TrEMBL record:
This is DUF2147 domain-containing protein. Residues 31-126 form the DUF2147 domain. The keyword Signal applies. InterPro entries: DUF2147. The lineage of its organism: Bacteria, Pseudomonadati, Pseudomonadota, Alphaproteobacteria, Hyphomicrobiales. It comes from Bosea spartocytisi. Pfam families: DUF2147. Gene3D superfamilies: 2.40.128.520. Residues 1-20 form the signal peptide. Keywords: Signal. It comes from the Bacteria.
Length: 128
């Protein structure tokens, strides 16, 4: 019985640490990221139990994208440093299935159609 109780506590501790690691990764994404072209910046923040991204700066404020426009929705953890949700493209006005992958201070986002057969990726770098 003692071993089972010890295993239960160890298992609970491992589960708690795994949850903390997921939250820590999400926190690493929270902040402002600049697109590789330098055309825009997006602020990622918590929105409920997910992450969302809102345009916080535009090089050309007269284009189709608008300040304050949410372009990433409901990005939820899907493995280590990966999230799935939805991505809105202001250029064509369509919403796509979206993914994000974090690697250090580099974030790669993708909007996909046809079940992920065709994707457009964008690279971002942390600005804060």
């Amino acid at each position: 019985m003692r071993t089972l109780a010890a295993f239960g506590l160890a298992g609970l501790a491992a589960f708690t640490l795994a949850g903390a690691a997921t939250r820590a990764s999400a926190q690493e994404v929270v902040g402002v990221w600049e697109r590789d072209t330098g055309a825009s910046r997006v602020r990622f923040s918590k929105c409920g139990d997910a992450l969302c991204g809102t345009i916080s700066w535009l090089k050309d404020p007269n284009g189709p994208a608008k300040l304050g426009q949410r372009i990433f929705f409901d990005m939820k953890p899907n493995g280590a440093n990966k999230w799935n949700g939805s991505a809105f493209n202001p250029e064509d006005g369509k919403t796509y299935s979206g993914t994000m992958t974090l690697s250090g201070n580099a974030l790669t986002t993708a909007g996909c159609v046809m079940g992920g057969l065709i994707c457009r990726t964008v690279k971002w770098s942390r600005t804060n």
